[in-house]
Amino acid sequence: MEVGMGRPLADDLGFLLSRASGQVVRVTNAALADHGLRVRQYSVLALACETEDGISQREVAAVLGLDPSQVVLLVDELAAAGLVERQAPEGDRRTRLVVATARGRGVREAARQDADAAVEGPLGLIGEAERERLRDVLTRIWTAGG
């Protein structure tokens, strides 16, 4: 595939990252469907499960790079499914913490196992050392972007 007079599209790192990400998201969404989740919902649930006291919706938006209004909708969906609750911390009526329920923690663990197995398809092409290197490089790119 040639792009104009320049290099082939298949050499474009942005294109390759986008396509690889799309493949991983597709297989992960398929694995999460049995749990009533999609990648974004799962990501919010996973963040809520990482702390006992929950995480603010503002922090979720920052970590996931989403607009706060998108996070509100995702949390609404998870709360309706009984996987998270919104709680107001003592003395702060404006902040809402997203706290995983016991059911949410169980669903997250089962969903994590299925998602990890599904990702083995595309990531099974590379060895463990390459995965660690890829994780390191992607983390550096992500965290440098703010």
Question: Can you walk through the features of this model?
Answer:
The longest helix is centred in the last third of the chain and has 22 residues, at 102-123. This protein has one domain: Orthogonal Bundle (Arc Repressor Mutant, subunit A), CATH 1.10.10.10. It contains six helices and three strands, in the order H-H-E-H-H-E-E-H-H. Strands 1-3-2 form a three-stranded antiparallel sheet. The chain has 146 residues and is mainly alpha-helical. The model has no long low-confidence stretch (mean pLDDT 92). Helices cover 63% and strands 7% of the residues.
Compile the SSE list and pairings:
Layout: H1 13-33, H2 39-49, E1 55-56, H3 57-64, H4 68-80, E2 84-87, E3 97-100, H5 102-123, H6 128-144
Helix pairs in contact: 1-5, 2-4, 2-5, 3-4
